[in-house]
Amino acid sequence: MIKSMTAFARETRTGDFGELAWELRSVNHRFLEPHLRLPEELRALEPAVRERLGARLQRGKVDCTLRYCPAVGLVGSLRLNRPYVEQLLAAGQEIADLIGRSAEPSGFELLRWPGVIQEQERDLNEVSKTALDLLDAALTTLLATREREGARLGVLLTERCDRLQESVVRVRLRMPQVLTGVRKRLTDRLAEVRGELDPGRLEQELSLLAARLDVEEEMDRLEAHVAEVRDVLKRDEPVGRRLDFLMQELNREANTLGSKSADVEVTRESVEMKVLIEQLREQIQNLE
């Protein structure tokens, strides 16, 4: 089943430890590019988070935000680093003696100094394990959303493949009339130049012109590429890059068809094909 790279998931869990919440947002990108925002006390989870993302996602820019609100009773108590404060005060007094002016700091100024307040270390093993389990649940939700969006895009892509196939059929039906018209125009033009036509020369010119206008190979390749797109859309694997390559091939054949066209209707069909291919390409950019 094809998957979209655009999705959102949010999972929360509460317990004796407090509350944890994951938010995952993914958008299209050529490769897997995770951006993590973790609380400082859970920063050590980053390698495990990246490993889980890499195991379940192939492509996409993924913003991962973890929020942690510890339970009131689990908030670490604050402890004053008294020896360190005494050293700071002594150093401040020494500076005051040197400059000949008192510079007594306030208590709150000292509290902002790094290292003055020490927080009691807490056991975060349970919180860490719960956060990783919750991440797995969020990834499951994200993948389900990607699949639903991928299914919706699959319907749109199939519909455009149908229209592209119909355009190819119309060109095939039109080509015999085009060649007949070209033959008539060339015959009429030669009749104006020469009263008596050389049948051999006429057939030679017609053969050369027909070869230049022949788009049978382009039609065959267009149909083959459309069939390949349909087949790829049924695969249960990342298909975005393969489909992007097929869009390049389809566009090349549509351009060749337009350059060979000697008929307004065929030119119009060529333009319509390129519009459909561009619509396909835009949607495919969102597929994993």
Question: What report would you give on this structure?
Answer:
The chain is an alpha+beta fold and 288 residues long. It has 3 domains: 7-74 and 125-147, Ribosomal Protein S5, domain 2 (2-Layer Sandwich); 78-119, no CATH class; 149-179 and 214-284, Four Helix Bundle (Hemerythrin (Met), subunit A) (Up-down Bundle), CATH 1.20.120. It has 8 helices and 6 strands, in the order E-E-E-H-E-E-H-H-E-H-H-H-H-H. The protein has helices spanning 46-56, 82-99, 107-111, 125-193, 199-213, 216-233, 240-260, 264-284; strands at 7-15, 18-27, 32-37, 60-70, 78-80, 117-119. The strands form 2 sheets. It has a 4-stranded mixed beta sheet, covered by helices on one side. A two-stranded antiparallel sheet has the order 5-6. Helix 1 runs parallel beside helix 4, helix 4 runs antiparallel to helix 6 (216-233) and helix 6 (216-233) runs antiparallel to helix 7 (240-260). The longest helix has 69 residues, at 125-193. It is elongated, with a radius of gyration of 35 Å.
Summarize the helices and strands and which ones pair or pack.
Blueprint: E1 7-15, E2 18-27, E3 32-37, H1 46-56, E4 60-70, E5 78-80, H2 82-99, H3 107-111, E6 117-119, H4 125-193, H5 199-213, H6 216-233, H7 240-260, H8 264-284
Parallel strand pairs: 3-4
Antiparallel strand pairs: 1-2, 2-4, 5-6
Question: Which key phrases capture this entry?
Answer:
62% helix, four-stranded mixed beta sheet, two-stranded antiparallel ribbon, Ribosomal Protein S5, domain 2, alpha+beta, single chain, elongated, Four Helix Bundle (Hemerythrin (Met), subunit A), 3 domains, 6 strands, 288 residues, 8 helices
